[in-house]
Amino acid sequence: MATFTVWSFDTPGGAEVASGVLRDAASEGLIKIVDRAIVSWPEGAAKPTTRHTHEDEWRGTGWGAFWGLLFGALFFVPVIGVAAGAALGAIHKSMEAVGLNKDQLDRIRAQVTEGTSALFAVTEDGNLDRVGERFHGLHGELVATNLTDEERRLLLETFD
């Protein structure tokens, strides 16, 4: 099963560093990256920048559409106002299909602000202990995941 996680960092470059750590772990066979995207919001910028890494060209197109929809819902649609209420409802419904509910979307939106960054990752078959060791000291916070409460607890314990 694919695991969807969102990690926030207290600097605009933190997610980029974490993405590199994740990529290195994948190159050593410790985890399989299905896809990932990075959001960085530098100080003074009006909005965040987003970058989708295209792990696999064939899958990249589909994931690119997903990331576009997700980032639109998180950072761009909310400023449109109530006229977009129905569209926003439809977006929230589609996000629930991958395990993200409205509360998680709100939590991501609240934590990814000016001066921060976030790593959005879809992974499979990870050796959590070994991958977790590599994330120590990166000061990331798990913001959202499609894992069960027990799986989430284990993930936090491993990566803390």
Automatic annotation (TrEMBL):
Protein name listed in UniProt: DUF1269 domain-containing protein
Organism: Oerskovia douganii
Annotated transmembrane regions: 65-91
Database matches in Pfam families: DUF1269
Keywords assigned by UniProt, alphabetized: Membrane, Transmembrane, Transmembrane helix
